[in-house]
Design goal:
The complex is a heterodimer. By secondary structure, chain A is mostly helical. Chain A has a single domain, classed as MetI-like fold. Chain A is about 70% helix and about 5% strand. Chain A starts with a helix and ends in a 7-residue tail after the last helix. Chain B contains 3 helices and no strands. Chain B has a domain of about 45 residues. The chains are: A mainly alpha, B mainly alpha.
Chain lengths: ~290, ~90
Amino acid sequence: MNKWEDNKAWFMVIPVFLVVAVSAIIPLMTVVNYSLQDIFGPGQRVYVGLEWYKKALTDSRLHDALSRQLLFSSLVLLIEIPLGIMIALMMPKKGWGASLSLVLVALPLLIPWNVIGTIWIIFMRPDIGLLGAAINNMGIPFDHTAAPFDAWVTVMMMEVWHWTPLVVLLAYAGLQAIPEAYFQAARIDGASAWATFRYIQLPKMRGVLTIAVLLRFMDSFLIYAEPFVLTGGGPGNSTTFLSIYLVKLAVGQFDLGPAAAFSMIYFLIVLLFCWLFYQVLLKVGTGDKS
Amino acid sequence: MSLEWMAWTMPTAIFFITIACLLVAMTVWQAKAPSGERKGFLPIKTTPGDRLFIGLLSSAFIHLAWIGLTSFTLWIAFVIALIWMAILMRWG
């Protein structure tokens, strides 16, 4: 095969490249352009250099929102990944039970994001909500619209309920792909359930768990619709995550320049974390100690 | 097609042209003389593309840290980032 044919596949990538260019690169360039200017309206703009970056980097509300976002994403990963693996391990591997449990587990993923927020508003209402009223009737005062801690608990529960199924499905697919011969060898060697999980199932799920961690981190770091509908960023600013603060800045106040600078910093943070996670997860189970 | 909505400025145009030229140069270089992964002072094995990515991302953070922590001219951060990029590409 000559060199031309070896590289012919690259031409197949052109449509994807064009889609990415239109949907990601051009908007990104525009955001960079906006971040250096004060935008008053179409055709009305003033170059301000790095002013908005200075403003964003010294904005205490941004620092607070970033801290909240990091805490939220850390909790999401700490809860959803182990829980998802645990549920996947407990699910039936064959027969009608497998199909039924897959459908049931996938149900929360089918509900639109804004509807999720509305469901949980009603579910957690202290007066008529199934869970909210139940907690209050047990003598524990609970109101996610008034107490920051209660708002956090509600947002976390909603997030875990909504997105753990994705981790379950990915982990389940990873588990199903492990050849039976590995388990037979483990049984012959008298391996415990934990040893089988630690040395067979977990390393074999490395690929899907990499995807799960990356997807869940990025999604949770960029979360907007669900907490916005549920709490609107409150009470106070207790659930104002980066995206909610960004939207308030860009749409609420029409400060496109500062919002664009903020977006660039946000983008770089997401890029850094995703790259770090990717590098760490590439090494899991490979025995690479470097 | 008017690109007015993209609000182009000369500095941002130069910035993106530089990045594009870097990517094209790296592509041509790797097509002519492919180099595989190697282990330098970074704790991971990297290709030249990996090192370019790490260099660009870290340069962005060098600039952000400079803007956020100091009031000196950004050209100093730019020179530091250039030196860092050169070290990373050669020994990273």
